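S.,

Sequence below, as promised.
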Amino acid sequence: KLFNRTKNASYYDPYFSCLLRLKKFDEAEKLARVLQKNNPENFNYPVDLGRVFQERGEQEKSIALYNNLIKNLPANEFAIKDLAITFYRAEAYDFSIKTFLNGRKILNDEKSFIYDLLSLYRYRKDKVMLIQEYLLLLSINPEALQQAQNVLGNILEDKDDFDLLKTAILRRLQKDAQNVVLTEFLAWQYVQQKDFDMALRQTLALDRRLKEDGARVFDLSRLLVSNQAYEQGIEALNYLVAKGEKSRYYIAAKIELLNLKAKQLTSGKLDKANLLTLESDYESLLKEFGRSSGTAFAIRQLANLQAFYLKKPAESAVQLQKLLELPGITPIIIAQTKLELGDIYTLSGEVWEAALIYGQVEKSFPNEVYGQEARYKNARL
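The prediction came back faster than expected:
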């Protein structure tokens, strides 16, 4: 009644939907046809007419109508988008996609409507087409790599899915072997599949080709270590060290190499000879770069090695005592170092020294995690 009395367009959608739900298909068809005749530029009414055909079981008529709408689109980007959006609202997603793809042909521009199609493919979970569309996007906007990785990282589920991505990237690289963003994408794909050898190979090749400072190799080395791919992590770090002392990541790579050896140690992969070699390596590093706030972590690692693996608690305690005397050490590092020193005193049976050092941390950080940890350790004494 409201619609018939006012002809207000805002009442049309609920009125039309009610007719469909009540299966009054003839009334719905008549309504859509009348409004289509009066509003020939509005795609809502012919699309709704197709909905009537669908609800009535006349699928072929609906498909023919929709295909005809797409076929007769003008070479106008706004009209193409309007029809695609109308299909989307009618939940005719395949026709929405078809509209955009045909729109590319009409406009003679294969790179138009990329973001619209990405949204549709993602919604439809069409992995094959989503991959292809992201590769198309990257060909014109390399900065979208992170977005592509984030989306595909959530959509692709197993080895078969990532193999689809790998195959698609490799096909593109056959045509454009020097494409940097595709090589980055390929390396990322190998990491997702935990094919760390290939990930490292691609990353090293990029660093050499672009004559970079090793940033991407260093980032990958940390990722490799976090995935316990120690062999590949060591190879990446050795590559950075081999760049020489003037290299940006020379010191960091050397420290990370030692940290990596320490991680292997804690997983039981090193024997006594390896432990002594590791100790010597730490001492060589500190001799080369000196003892400072910048090498504090290495000093603490050396102390941990000596105290808990080489049974040298006295030497270990001296390492940490000297560290606490260095200028420029942050309060957090001081707290961590004192807690570690207290643990070494406890190991040596120097309970009063341990209580004293724990008490200092508790007093300096009364309401923080370090203070609480110190209080707990003191109570256990």
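Residues 1-90 form a domain with the Serine Threonine Protein Phosphatase 5, Tetratricopeptide repeat fold (CATH 1.25.40).

Coffee later?
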